[in-house]
Amino acid sequence: MGRFLSFRLLGAAVVLLAKSFVIFALIGLMPGDPIDLMINANPETTPEQMAHLRAIYGVDQSIWLRYVHWLTDALGGDFGFSRIQHRPVLDIVIPALGNTLILTGVAFVISTVLAITLGTLAALRRGSWVDRTINLFAFAGISVPSFWLGLLFIYVFAVKLGWLPAGGMPRPEQGWRGMAAHLALPVATLVIVEVGGLTRYARSAMIEVLGQDFIRTARAKGLTNQRMLLRHALRNALIPVLTLIALQLGGLFSGAALTEAMFAWRGMGRLILEAILGNDYNLALVCLLFVTATILLANILADIAYTWLDPRISLGGRRK
Amino acid sequence: MSALLEARDLSVSFPVGGGWLQPARQVPAVRGVNLALQAGEALAVVGESGSGKTTLARALLGLVPVSGGQVIFAGQDTATMPASARQAMRRQVQMVFQDPFGSLDPRLTVGGIIAEPLEIHGLGTTATRRARVAELLGLVGLPADAAARYPHQFSGGQRQRIALARALAPAPQVIIADEPLSALDVSIQSQILNLLVELRARIGLAYLMISHDLAAVHHLADRVATMYLGAVVEVAGVEEMFTRPAHPYTAGLLAAVPRLGAGKRVPGGTLPGDIPSPLAPPPGCVFHPRCAGATARCGQEVPLLRPLDAGRAVACHHPLTGAV
Amino acid sequence: MSEAAVSVWQLRWRRLRRDWPALAGAGVLVALYLACRAAPWLEDWLGVSGVETDLLSRFEPADGQHWLGSDEAGRDELCRLLRGGQVSLSIGFMAALGSSLVGTVIGACAGYFRGKVDMVLMRFTDFVLALPGLPVLIILAAIDLTKLGFSQDFVRSGDAGYWRIVAIVTLLGWTTVARLVRAATLALAEREFVLAARAQGASAWRVLWVHVLPNAISPVIVATTLRMGGVLLTESALSFLGVGIQPPATSWGSMLTNAQELIATAPLLAIYPGALVLVSVIAINFFGDGLQSAFDPRSDPG
Amino acid sequence: MTAPLLHAADLKVTLGPPGAGVAVIAGLDFSLEAGRTLGVVGESGCGKSMTALAIMGLLPRPHAVGGALRFNGTDVLTLPAEGHRRLRGAQMAMIFQEPMTALNPVVTVGRQIAEMLEVHRATPPDQAARQAVALLERVGIADAGRRATAFPHQLSGGMRQRVMIAMAIACKPALLIADEPTTALDVSVQAQILDLLLELQRDEGMAMVFISHNLGVVSEMADDILVMYSGRAVEYGPAQAVLRAPRHPYTAGLIATLPDIGRRQAVLPVIPGNVVNPRRRPAGCAFAGRCAQAGADCAAAVPMLTPVAAGHAAACLRVRPAA
Fold it and tell me: Among A275, B37, B319, D235, fewest CB within 10 Å belongs to which?
């Protein structure tokens, strides 16, 4: 286990390094480097001053050199400053990461539990009206543009009915009620968007498992339906579902980014969008790396859960 | 007479596991097999799953990479022969597979499937190919209009006939058949078995038949080789093998075949245990843990395949002598 | 014994023909597309425009001339929706097709050549798949194309905006198809009819073209269809954020750019484009799902 | 004479929705005394596996059943689902063809065996686990204590089938149904499993329904043989009588068509044609299309199972009934 973990963490570090370079390079291709922005702010800059500024900021160097510089500083704990907020990037990123984890965590737990329950129900009542209703609901969830759904929620529940806040963060003195009220709409949006695909996947995984020989054995053993489902079917059906969840963590985050933007939730997604659209590249870079690192860690956790669910898989994902 | 197709000290291993940093382990599937198929001969290879018989067949066809030894076709080493000679060999050596549902491409018509070897080897024109397909369909007992239909419109036995027609298309000298009967219903097996016998008599083919069905082998083969854990343990003419097996494993296999009309079974006398893992073969004779006649020597010294009497060889320190 | 020849595709068509939600989905899509193509004709007939701004008739309610009213710049909402739909649907189609082509090539290479090629390509696929999609898309959408050597003229033209969206959605969208094709190719390589062709000495090219790809194509068709829905959603999100289709060109997504401000005053203007995206994606998904069950290898005869 | 343990009277099974169903069993009669073995032989699609599933109450849905199927005097076809569930595993058990897929891949074999005792005997888990180890020893698995903690993929095919058997006999059922139990196994392992089944039957006195396409295997296991063709019994009687003096042309053909190790023939006698698809079963005798003795009368009506000797019956118009 220890060996596996250190091996995986090392692998994740390598991937993170590769991603940091890709993102660094991509951001370098965006219009308006810091010098352009300064020049725009002060049209009287002379070419000599421009060259000088470029040298100070290192913009005249090759992308490799700039990357190595940035990386050395980052490894030393210095992630630089945010251009818009004039604060060290880490001071902004850490609370935002916490907010995102609250939002996505709640949405993730609800959608996973809901998907597995609905998927199992649909699989058991295959072809019935229950199955068809769940299927329709799932299709609608997959097909709806999340930001548009968020808009409708805001219009109905905040503008028309006034039941819930249209967005923003709860104040600390509002306690858990404030948290719940502010979370309700973004979580509902995220859950509806995420749960459709998962439900359909859980359904087909369950149908697959229910058709397996060992389920017939379980019935031949005279087990009750409940025991057959909980002890034999569910755990086997969870294996492919978990794979999909692990693969979709990046997607979950993307969905969260849009939802955070809609509901002014101060999370990583909103921060990244603001940073990119506001040309705050250093902030965007660090945010993206933190998100990537979180996804990689979650994937390692998924792998560990995988070996626990399926004894045929050895740690490291190899089938024995 | 020189052999048409021959395995010389042939070994095949498959890598298992391995990743970015760990090297893969090699699992030996075929270990130093010497076996020669003469022109016009029907040679059967029998053995249980894990004996390496299918891998041997695929190695002879060049479908899996060989890790040691040689495959000789018509006196030439296939590893060093020029591409044109290899293509000629592929025309001369055809294969029939076990699963008649998997061995025919569902997207092609039966005519297209049978004509494919002709196309690959550039034999004939479109018109002559069509005529050849009709001729082949007749040869394997299918109506000529079958050519326009698709494989899923045929039963298992009919599909195995189609697979045979495809194998016969380029007029080969050898057909390697890997368990050609085991996926078929009992009443269909004998139809195909008869067809195989009849085709051999009419065309003068050589067969290499891989099978675990000893009764079918007895019906079809001239000579039989028994394999165990990747190695040939006994080779003999079919009558000698079935009446006086020399290797205890062959004898055990024969004894295990259920017989009709022998009355209800009396438990006892069966081969104990399972075939061992090729990753951890027992020392000495790999069969000794399951052998009733094993001695201390069997646990230490690997027996070599050596001639016993005319046309018969056995890899055993204490070959059996009596009849069963 | 004189049974008619029935190919696998004929059997699949028979199954699809009985699947009314799938047929309804396909019907809705075709109807939407034709309606979108008819936008210029409709504009002439009604004497309105979905392009020209008319600041004197902003926020008009629906009437005989403006069937769905007019928007914040006085353009006819219906005609604008139809023109936007042309762009959205065609981006969906092009990017889904592009993703499939890229994915098929990468997946087929990985599955057929295996070993190191497979390992490298699949690591790359995982890498792309694990990128936080939307932020990377936004960065890609904002990239200064002149820094990549494209001419100023091209970059400023409307075409660049269209093709940029198609390209970036393709760049991140091929992974599903690549995985599917790889899995299908790997499975097919073990099938005995592929072994049979190899035993005949068939070239790698022939094995891939005659035996592997035709048998691997059905999951690709399904994935391409479903991918179209995904592209529509992505395009609308990017345009909503202001980095997608740029004015004067329009798409359903770009019509939603101002939706957040309009939601309180003119909610219908925010609802229409999103509803059309929803309807199209649902139609695509129903059709794709129908294709999937019609193409299910388990209902195919061997 | 006491009532038989298992008795089928005009058993009919139709699979599929009403109106579009396929009659996979079209009227079947047999009975089985306690402690004896009924061998059921037939080719694919003849309905032999469906007979087993009907006894166990595991027929795929939707289905319709007809006739009667009495187990210990109770008609299991009309038994409520819960009542049938209580019988399964406790009084009737079943083993299958593929021991790999028939075992749950993510549960240890010890737990899978112990579960039987927990469900049907309410045995406490620790005690059930100990009994599972004893059962593994009973079916000839060496080092049973360690094997009980293994997962199915860590065992060989033969050992997995032994695990299935241990599970099946855990509650000492009166009836064991073995559906092609050795088809997926090698001959040497097949012999071991057949021996094990015979020893267990001798010690526990359970009755067995032994289903196989392999006449040789059935002949070694069965007291009585039921030969099925296209959903019906074509011949039924004591094993030796059926094998030595088959009366139905299908049985006779099936026996003649098998290559015999002791005797090499130039050409094997064959049954021409293909196995009948139950969807396209002809009126009259389903075998008539492949039968050399068939005449116009064979297509007219389904022949009834008619006694030809003591306890021996065949369903063919060409056999002369016993006096």
Answer: B319
> Would you call A29 exposed, middle or buried from its count of C-beta atoms within 10 A (0-12, 13-18, 19+)?
middle
Q: How many residues does chain A have?
A: 320
CATH of C21-47+65-295, one of 3.40.1170.10, 1.10.3720.10, 2.40.50.140, 3.30.420.40: 1.10.3720.10
Mean pLDDT of the residues in chain D: 91
Q: Is residue A11 part of a domain?
A: no
Instruction: Report chain A residues whose CB lies below 8 A from the CB of B18.
Output: none
CA B120 from centroid of its chain's CA atoms? 24
Instruction: Give the number of domains in chain A.
Output: 1
Neighbours of chain A (3+ CB pairs under 8 A): B, C, D
**With 50 as the cut, is the pLDDT of residue C1 above it?**
no
Average pLDDT score over residue span B181-185: 88
Chains A and D touch (3+ CB pairs under 8 A): yes
| Domains by residue range for chain D, with CATH | 6-91+173-314 (3.40.50.300)
Q: Which residues of B touch D257 (CB under 8 A)?
A: 186-187, 189-190
Q: Which CATH number belongs to the domain containing residue A249 in this structure?
A: 1.10.3720.10
More reliable by pLDDT, A171 or A121: A121
Tell me how close the Cα of B16 comes to any Cα of chain A, in angstroms: 10
**Amino acid symbol at B78:** T
Q: How many of the other CB atoms lie within 10 Å of CB of C261?
A: 11
Q: For B292-324, how does the pLDDT look when each residue is reduced to its tens digit (9 = 90+)?
A: 889 999 999 999 999 988 789 999 999 988 655
pLDDT band at D2 (very low <50, low <70, confident <90, very high): low
Higher pLDDT pick, A91 / D178: D178
Q: Is A50 inside a domain boundary?
A: no
Choose the closest CB to C135 out of A140, A151, A257.
A257
Packing angle of the helix pair D109-121, D157-169 (nearest 10 deg): 10
Partners of residue A19 in chain C, C-beta under 8 Å:
127, 131
pLDDT for B32: 92
CA–CA distance, B5 with C217 (Å, rounded to integer): 39
Asked if the structure places residue A152 within a domain, the reply is: yes
Alpha carbons C112 and C100: distance in angstroms, whole number? 17
- C264 contacts in A (CB within 8 Å)? 155, 159
In-domain check, residue A149: yes
Could you tell me the residue ranges of all domains in chain C? 21-47+65-295
Proportion of chain D above pLDDT 90, given as a percent:
69
Rounded to a whole number, what is the distance in Å from the CA of C47 to chain A's nearest CA?
31
Q: Give the mean pLDDT of chain C.
A: 80
